[in-house]
Amino acid sequence: MLEHSPEFGTFLEVMLPGRARQFALVSETPFLIGRGAETGNHLQLDDRRISRSCAAIVADDAGYALEDRGHRHGVFVNGTNVERVTLQDGDHIDFGLEDGCELIFHSPGESPSIEVMLTRLGSIPSITAAQPGNMSKLNLLLEATTLLHSQLSLDSVLGTMLEHAIAITNADRGLLLEPDDSGELKQRLARTSKSARVQHQHIPASQTAVRQAIERQSSVITADLGLADAALKSAQSVVAQRLRSVVVIPLYAMPRANSDQSVVLTRGQLLGVLYCDSTRPAAFSNLDRQILDALGMESASILDNARLVERERERQRLEQELSIARYIQKALLPQGMNKYPHLSLSGFHLPCHEVGGDYYDVFPIDNQKTAVLIADVSGKGLGAALLTTILQGALSGMSMGVEPARVFNHINKFLCEHSELGRYATMFFGIFGQDGSLEYIRAGHPSPMLMRRGEVTELYTGGSFPVGLIEEAEFTSTTVQLEPGDTLVLFSDGITEAENGRRDLFQTFRLHDALADRIDEPLESLQQAVLDSVNAFSAGAAQADDLTLLIVRYQTPVQDTVAPG
Predict the structure, then answer these.
(1) Distance of CA 198 to the CA centre of its chain
(2) What is the pLDDT of residue 81?
(3) Is the dihedral of CA 82, 84, 87, 92 positive or negative?
(4) d(CA 106, CA 111)
(5) Comparing 537 with 145, which gets the higher pLDDT?
(6) Is there a contact between 404 and 527 (Cβ–Cβ < 8 Å)?
(7) Which is more confident, 445 or 163?
(8) In which region does residue 454 sit, left (phi positive, over 0), alpha (psi from -120 to 50) or beta (all else)?
(9) What's the pLDDT tens digit per position in 532-554?
(10) 460, 442 contact by CB (below 8 A)
(11) What is the architecture of the domain spanning 332-554?
């Protein structure tokens, strides 16, 4: 999502209830729109009522068209339900939801014409514009405009713009300055009047002139420094280099939008400074000044769009990496959960972001015992997902015969010794024996629900520490005996802390109610009942945590029978 409106390029204006207006560049087609990233959406809308595959903008002979890609509430353009329609600049798009997202399609159309550029320059007397020198300068400006839509590299375009500025001002040299991460202006490009590149050499600019232009937020065009104000005339760089004329044009991003959807007609972010100087006095007509201002606008547009493109490429790169991480995390979920003769299992995991900090696992300890666990790492995103894979690898080592409590104490010590990670994890870990024994370790995780003989209770009460939070914590195991048909419902706090539109929490008692009177139902039915209850409660409200559910039912293993001899 972009922070400001691009001046060129097709883009969508995105309006979400209660949020500031944002913008998304249509960087490729088909441009996919929907909830989440798993279907490759370029514009991801944070509304659970919107389908994951919702809509797409595609290119056709007429320009751009909007397609409904299966949104269950329909896709609407200017209030009309559509399956496919060619978009026009200013079309309003919504998804049939009350208080839902609204998009406005913007397309700049063709490149600016000569008449448009003359309009941007203001009123120019025909007799003045017709003079050969002025026409040459206008041609330079129009050439600069075509550069905006060229396929040349950014530095080539900016270098040509800089050469045009030198030609218009009749300067000896020109610089393009850009702010670094600290805001200090650094030289990016330098040219001389002979169009020669100046590489690996710093050319000092008049800091006084640059500072004045930024403070005033307008161009400083001084034809003769001998007649300038005292501060500029006596500046050290001006005196040392014997400068007589200076042109400084600050380059700003496009104006931002207010949260009330009105455009703020003020300067945006400082993108850089176009600087030219000479050891000779210059003469600047009104037309020269207007051409320089217009050239500054074009330079700012090029820098602004370059940043948008760079940000969009970075977003796509990050989304690709997140997609890979999500694929890996999904692949690490247990497979073949029906292969354990003494257990029936069903699991569900839905991260609130591309990757999550929750996970569950099921793996054999030996021929008689099976490990089951659920974990919730603090935080969100890639950092939490990375720690889940570390924990999963460490805990899987129990299949080598290491005592569970010893493994937990080792993990706790390791995470505490690396406290700069700032991460900890709540976990429930249980080992189910074929004889019905359950040895479990609790580490700050909510107690599983135990469904037994028509009742739903908590397996344990009281608190415990997460792993990685307190170095002195000691983890021990507890053993209980299960009966055939006993069912444990393991869940993350994304279930009990799911929110509705009023910010109320789902809480444990609603989970209890969702499970009551369903003791003997198949595990898939139990799982769906919980998820349906959470969805009905949240009523489409966006969730801030992963939803993870693992249901385990103990059953007497079927014994091989031996036919009588």
Answers:
(1) 38
(2) 92
(3) positive
(4) 15
(5) 537
(6) no
(7) 445
(8) left
(9) 999 999 988 887 788 899 999 99
(10) yes
(11) 4-Layer Sandwich (3.60)
What residues have CB less than 8 Å from 551, skipping those under 6 apart? 345, 346, 347, 487, 488, 489, 490, 523, 526, 527
Alpha-carbon distances, residue 267 vs 4, 104, 218, 250, 518 (angstroms)? 12, 23, 10, 10, 62
Residues 6+ apart with CB under 8 A from 33: 41, 42, 43, 45, 54, 55, 56, 57, 103
CB 421 within 8 A of CB 387: yes
Q: DSSP secondary-structure letter at 277? A: E
What residues contact 290, with CB distance under 8 A and at least 6 apart? 121, 122, 124
**Residues 473/463, Cβ–Cβ less than 8 Å:** no
Span 373-402, average pLDDT: 80
Q: Please state the three-class secondary structure of 79-113 as a single string.
A: CEEECEEECCCCCEEECCCCCCCEEEEECCCCCCC
Residue 280 CA to residue 97 CA, distance in Å, equals 65
Which fold, 11-109? Tumour Suppressor Smad4 (2.60.200)
- 423-to-352, 384, 396, 411, 416 alpha-carbon distances in Å: 18, 8, 20, 12, 9
List pLDDT tens digits, range 110-132: 434 334 444 444 433 333 444 44
pLDDT-based confidence at 196, cuts 50/70/90?
low
User: Domain coordinates of the chain in residue numbers?
Assistant: 11-109, 114-311, 332-554
Q: Which CATH architecture has domain 114-311?
A: 2-Layer Sandwich (3.30)
Cβ neighbour number for residue 150 with a 10 Å cutoff: 11
Query: Alpha carbon of 222 to those of 24, 275, 310: distances in Å?
Result: 40, 12, 35
Cα–Cα distance between 238 and 209 in angstroms, integer?
9
Q: In terms of C-beta distances under 8 Å and separation of at least 24 residues, what long-range contacts does 186-194 make, across chains too? A: 188/158, 188/272, 189/155, 189/158, 189/159, 189/162, 190/162, 191/159, 191/162, 191/163, 191/166, 192/166, 193/166
Three-class secondary structure of residue 161 per DSSP: helix
Q: Given pLDDT bands bounded at 50, 70 and 90, which one contains residue 29?
A: confident
The number of angstroms, rounded, from the C-alpha of 502 to the middle of its chain's C-alpha atoms is 26
One fold for both 11-109 and 332-554? no
Cβ atoms of 528 and 549 closer than 8 Å: no
Q: What is the dihedral of CA 462, 467, 473, 474, to 10 degrees?
A: 80
Structure confidence at residue 147 (pLDDT): 61
Give mean pLDDT, residues 443-459.
Answer: 94
Q: Nearest Cα to 54, choosing from 43, 64, 327?
A: 43
Bridge-based pairing of strands 31-34 and 43-44 is: parallel
Residue pair 114/262 in contact (Cβ under 8 Å)? The answer is no
Cα–Cα dist 317/320, whole Å = 5
How much is the average pLDDT of 149-174? 78
